[in-house]
Amino acid sequence: KTKRKKMTYQPLPYQCTIRPSWIEGLGLFAVKEIRKDTTLGISHIEVEDTLYRLALGSFINHAEKSNCVRIQKGNKWYLKTTKDIMPNQELTLTYSLYKPEWNVFTVIKK
Predict the structure, then answer these.
(1) Which of 32, 14, 21 is nearest to 62 (CA)?
(2) Cα gap 89→63, rounded to integer Å
């Protein structure tokens, strides 16, 4: 008999939610305090020549003075805070991963 592995699905970290943004459309917001240097999870994953945006990477908006960065480890990009983030504060990135010619509304091809 093969023992089944436990599977869980948590599209967002427990500290975050999605709600209307003052920046654009929907955004990623803190529901509780998130400390500086917290790794929130995987935002993107690359498989062969395709970069897939996961739930965590789908709603984070751009800001020149952002409070998060993406850290690449292998074929995965992780979202990490660069400042303490208070409840109801929007999490933001300074976009550098996307290029205008890429179709960022579906699957991103390099």
Answers:
(1) 21
(2) 13
With contact defined as beta carbons under 8 Å apart, do 67 and 29 qualify? no
Show the tokens assigned to 19: 């709600």
Q: Other C-beta atoms within 10 Å of 26: how many?
A: 13
Placement of tokens 């509780």 in the chain: 32
Query: Which helix H or strand E contains 91, and what residues bound it?
Result: strand 90-93
Which residues, listed in sequence order, are joined to residue 61 by a DSSP beta bridge? 92
DSSP 76: E
Q: What is the pLDDT of residues 57-87, one digit of tens each?
A: 889 999 989 999 989 999 999 999 999 999 9
- Cα 45 to its chain centre, rounded Å, is 11
Tell me the per-residue pLDDT of 82-106, one tens digit each, with 9 for 90 and over. 999 999 999 999 876 554 444 444 4
Please check whether residue 80 is in contact with residue 72, taking contact to mean a CB–CB distance below 8 angstroms: no
CA distance 94 to 9: 28
